[in-house]
């Protein structure tokens, strides 16, 4: 798990193999998350030049990590606690806290915690020039504080002893900051996530768009971010989690684009299904949707 000494930042992701999808047959039989890592995240890392500034620290089972490329990738074996089998999203934070993974991450000055269904943009390298002296946590934006959710989050924070002096709502799951700060956020997020799952959602799932178990990771992350970084959460300097459906130029402050659940271009689900295979590559016009489409398809379409 040795890394290049010249890099001081890492993108950390959890990689599960996932079930094969229709395009898997012609791409070596890999599962959906391995395909996302190879053709979305890693492909964009190398094509944008972000690899000059970032490693990717990939956490997962050894047999999954063996399916990933080696270039610019630090492979950190991780076996999740069975507790997370009933809430898969928790693995993406719990992996940072495994002692063997933490020891790798502590070698870097800065960390970007993200996911595999992400495209880096040419603006990702701007993160490296960020002044982290103020211990600011840069985050994406969520959309989960609906129908009394904010009040419930305040109740949990009060009950568990994580009251913040200043609160930012709808904190996204993507975070960037000092390595020590991101690890501290992850530690508190993981603890609060366990609390939410075992106490607050023990009797039921709730219902979206209200209080809902499915977004417990975001609930826990918001409480943790506000507790540790009250007044120092920044969602404006960088537009984290840009949209893969953007029909506008990618903003100059957008380091990466996230694939949400959609059937519009670019849709990861349509990509999985092979629906884009026979379509011509769209123009390289700088729009978010076409950028994602071109990167995914030029790397993975049939020859």
Short description:
With 303 residues, the protein is of the alpha/beta class.
Q: What report would you give on this structure?
A:
- The protein is an alpha/beta fold.
- It has one domain (9-300): Spore Coat Polysaccharide Biosynthesis Protein SpsA, Chain A (Alpha-Beta Complex).
- 32% of the residues lie in helices and 15% in strands.
- The protein is built from 9 helices and 10 strands.
- The protein has helices at residues 32-48, 62-65, 91-94, 99-105, 149-160, 179-200, 216-228, 268-273, 288-300; strands at residues 9-14, 54-60, 73-77, 110-113, 118-120, 137-141, 171-178, 233-234, 242-243, 256-258.
- A 7-stranded mixed beta sheet has the order 3-2-1-4-7-6-8.
- Helix 1 (32-48) crosses helix 9 and helix 6 (179-200) packs across helix 7.
- The longest helix has 22 residues, at 179-200.
- The model is unreliable at 1-6 (pLDDT under 50).
